[in-house]
Amino acid sequence: MSSNPRIFILSGPSGAGKTTLLNILLRKKNIQKKFVRAISFTTRKKRPGEKEGRDYFFISKKEFLALKKQNFFLESQRVFDNYYGTPKYFYEEAKNEGKNLILCIDVKGGMYLKSKYKLDRIIALFITAPSELALRKRLKGRIEDDETIQKRVALSSKEMEFAKHYDGIIINEDLKKASAALEKIVRQNLNN
Ligand code: ADP
Ligand code: 5GP
């Protein structure tokens, strides 16, 4: 089967809960089988508990820039002081298997893909924490150092300005409610 995949984008401040919500969503087998989940490449350091190939592919800046030059990425951005990119092959895999593609990317990457693809192929969702205090607590809970937390919280207010360009906003306060909201939107918009 080969059809252009529908692309579900989850964006929003770091620490808002995008990865947590995506993991919960893909635990539903009847949803999981309809998706290819893109794993990004990044130049940032691995956090404790993160796994190569499950959370990210961790590479050096030199390797990243060489791949970028080879047109390896569907999109890529510099976020904080690191590079992040979605490899094209996940898009190809979704296309070949007649599946949907889902990815967690920053707002610049989200806006780029929205401009690149026809609007009916993109479902861009903005995930946010209920407050800056909650965001700070979540970042702290993820065992980020103070400087990293500071940078991420500072960027979050700029990222919030992009929320209006998204197709939907999910306030991730109660995890159960937020994951039900995400599941509902996803089911309504599945390709097949
Ligand atoms: P993101 O992928 O957006 O950077 P994560 O999914 O890594 O964020 O979540 C950041 C932290 O917040 C994690 O420790 C996660 O367990 C926690 N978290 C996620 N959603 C909630 C929620 N609704 N309430 C409390 N903590 C949450
Ligand atoms: P983190 O370091 O917290 O994992 O991610 C930092 C930011 O980079 C988050 O907003 C995350 O969604 C974003 N990000 C992760 N992978 C990609 C990617 O492949 N492309 C883009 N544009 N952003 C990404």
Keywords:
8 helices; 9 strands; globular; 4-stranded mixed β-sheet; 192 residues; single chain; alpha/beta; Rossmann fold; 43% helix; binds guanosine-5'-monophosphate; 5-stranded parallel β-sheet; binds adenosine-5'-diphosphate
Give an overview in words.
- By secondary structure, the chain is α/β, with parallel strands linked by helices.
- It has a single domain, classed as Rossmann fold.
- The chain has 8 helices and 9 strands.
- It has a 5-stranded parallel beta sheet, sandwiched between helices.
- The protein starts with 6 loop residues before the first strand and ends with a helix.
- The mean pLDDT is 94.
- It binds adenosine-5'-diphosphate (ADP) and guanosine-5'-monophosphate.
- The site of guanosine-5'-monophosphate (5GP) has 15 residues, from β5 and β6.
CATH class: Alpha Beta
Regions with pLDDT < 50 over 5+ consecutive residues? none
Could you estimate the helical fraction of the residues in percent?
40-55%
How would you name the oligomeric state of the polypeptide chains in this document?
A: single chain
| Average pLDDT, all residues | 94
Strand content: 15-25%
CATH architecture: 3-Layer(aba) Sandwich
Would you identify the CATH H-level superfamily?
P-loop containing nucleotide triphosphate hydrolases
Number of domains: 1
Number of strands: 9
Order of helices and strands: EHHEEEHEEHEHEHHEH
Task: List ligands, each type once.
Answer: adenosine-5'-diphosphate, guanosine-5'-monophosphate
Please report the number of helical segments: 8
